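Lab notebook, design round three. We kept the backbone fixed and only want residue identities now. Task for the bench partner: fill in a sequence for the structure below.
Input structure tokens:
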């Protein structure tokens, strides 16, 4: 183990989630005077012409930008990781710089580099929770000894995002002792996703939702996810190493309850608009240019439902929906409510014409 170095490396820092984490992480010493200043390395795609050091500084992150190519040149990451004690293995398909087919290779590059650099603590945020019942057959033959390794090595282009995130989790557990890993699960339905539907809500006073009124959602605010991650990154590895957390909002919500929270927050009546996937896809495609990003969001929202898995509905629950107190345990405070989100973003959902 290396001597105490509190510096942090954040992979996949091209997107909004990575940017918010960097900014919040570097603001923590000014908010909590007992915390030391740390160096944050922001790993961005070597092919990303839209991100530069100066642009990150304009976002007030002041992070040290590292242009990386973990898929084709993972060895180059080892030098930067040798300067840190913690790696936030952030995989963000919404950044627009990571294709679905490259997800496993992206993660493998960072994991292998972290192992070589003797990184002490790896934090892996994932929007997917383990399924309670295996409704579908495994991706590979069920030889338990070789199943995980075969699945990882077989970068199947047809794998869903859920499959790939679960394989990344397995890859981590195969590479590092559990005491060096922290898994942070969060619901795929984030309050901020509803901003993508602002025009539809303005024009129709309806929230577009998946066509299944019996679904139950776990929602949470992106700021709560960021807050939990930053607290873990600033703590000694012994406090959170080996833990699996699940961050949720304060309530489980049905589709009708989501509409009620929107109505209370916006001060006008909002109703659910149940739409098939193809219509949701069209609405999202008007505001998101990348097809894979749209597909990722649809998978997140669909698979978060209580009775939905792999494209169809089942009478048995695919996964357990629940409210946890993990956020309060990590940060000392509760999560933000969906109603408060709408109150704080009322201007975005109001017609300015």
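Proposed sequence:
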């Amino acid at each position: 183990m290396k001597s105490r170095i509190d510096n942090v490396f954040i992979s996949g820092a091209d997107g909004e989630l990575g940017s918010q984490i960097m900014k919040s992480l570097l603001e923590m010493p000014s908010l909590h005077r007992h915390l030391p200043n740390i160096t944050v390395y922001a790993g961005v795609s070597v092919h990303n012409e839209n991100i530069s050091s100066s642009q990150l500084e304009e976002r007030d992150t002041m992070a040290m930008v590292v242009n990386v190519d973990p898929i084709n040149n993972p060895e180059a990451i080892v030098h930067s990781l040798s300067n840190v004690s913690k790696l936030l293995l952030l995989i963000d398909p919404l950044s627009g710089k990571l294709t679905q087919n490259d997800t496993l290779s992206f993660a493998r590059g960072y994991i292998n580099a972290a192992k070589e650099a003797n990184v002490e603590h790896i934090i892996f945020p994932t929007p997917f929770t383990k399924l309670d019942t295996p409704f579908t057959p495994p991706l590979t033959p069920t030889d338990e000894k070789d199943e995980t390794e075969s699945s990882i090595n077989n970068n199947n282009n047809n794998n869903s995002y859920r499959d790939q995130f679960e394989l990344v989790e397995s890859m981590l557990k195969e590479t590092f002792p559990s005491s060096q890993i922290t898994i942070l699960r969060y619901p795929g339905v984030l309050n901020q996703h509803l901003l993508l539907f602002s025009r539809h809500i303005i024009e129709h006073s309806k929230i577009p939702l998946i066509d299944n009124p019996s679904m139950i959602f776990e929602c949470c605010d992106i700021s709560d996810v960021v807050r939990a991650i930053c607290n873990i990154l600033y703590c000694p590895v012994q406090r959170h190493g080996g833990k699996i957390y699940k961050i949720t909002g304060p309530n489980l919500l049905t589709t009708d309850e989501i509409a009620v929270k929107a109505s209370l927050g916006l001060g006008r009546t909002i109703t659910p608009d149940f739409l098939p996937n193809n219509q949701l896809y069209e609405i999202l495609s008007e505001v998101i240019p990348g097809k894979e990003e749209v597909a990722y969001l649809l998978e997140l929202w669909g698979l978060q439902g209580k009775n939905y898995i792999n494209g169809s509905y089942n009478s048995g629950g695919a996964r357990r929906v629940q409210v946890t107190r993990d956020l309060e345990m990590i940060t000392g405070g509760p999560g933000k409510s969906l109603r408060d989100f709408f109150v704080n973003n009322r201007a975005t959902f109001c017609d300015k014409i």
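Keep this in mind before ordering anything: Residues 16-31 form the longest helix (16 residues).
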